[in-house]
Amino acid sequence: MSGAIEVAASLLEKYVYNGYSRCMFLFSDGQANIGMKTRAELTNLVAGYNNEGIITDSFGIGADFDTEIMKVLVNVFGICGSAARLIVRGKNGAVVTKIWGDKNIVAGASLGELYFDNRRSVLCEFTTSGTAVAGENEIETLTYEL
């Protein structure tokens, strides 16, 4: 596993494209047979690359893959949640008419996995009644749930 991680990271270090993420996908049974074998060694390896901006996503394969090692590799860089969705609703007469990039307004925007230092943008289109309460300069038009 460590050899595959090192080769992938060296390619991502060599071929840098501005504006693109550097991410590797590791498909493994979690059995470290050659090279670094302990959780601590593999965690430090992945953490080092993460500090350089290279993210590792790991996927366990096989009937008996080592869940603990595969989870450790994902959690190195602070995963906060997976399969995250942002549900946006209109408020005070506003109606959400479109969430760009997602077809189902009711289901919300799919954000996938969230990490501690990620920033996500969701573009919404909505209509509002255009009526304001006397004396108020601001009206809340959207509410959200993550």
How would you describe this structure to a colleague?
The strands form 3 sheets. Strands 5-3-7 form a 3-stranded antiparallel sheet, with no helix packed on it. Helix 1 (2-14) runs parallel beside helix 2 (39-51). Helix 2 links the parallel strand 1 (22-28) and strand 2 (54-60). It is built from 3 helices and 7 strands; from the N terminus they run αβαβαβββββ. It is of the alpha+beta class and 146 residues long. It folds into 2 domains: 2-77, no CATH class; 81-145.
Question: Got a strand count?
Answer: 7
Helix content: 10-25%
* H and E string: HEHEHEEEEE
Summed over residues and divided by their number, the pLDDT gives a mean of: 83
Give the class from helix and strand content and strand pairing: alpha+beta
Over all CA atoms, what is the radius of gyration? Answer: 21 Å
Amino- and carboxy-terminal Cα gap:
35 Å
Task: Give the structure's gist in a few sentences.
The protein is an alpha+beta fold and 146 residues long. Helix content is 24%, strand content 32%.
Task: Compile the SSE list and pairings.
Blueprint: H1 2-14, E1 22-28, H2 39-51, E2 54-60, H3 67-75, E3 79-90, E4 95-99, E5 109-115, E6 124-127, E7 142-145
Parallel strand pairs: 1-2
Antiparallel strand pairs: 3-5, 3-7, 4-6
Helix pairs in contact: 1-2
Comma- or semicolon-separated keywords:
two-stranded parallel sheet, 146 residues, single chain, alpha+beta, three-stranded antiparallel beta sheet, 2 domains
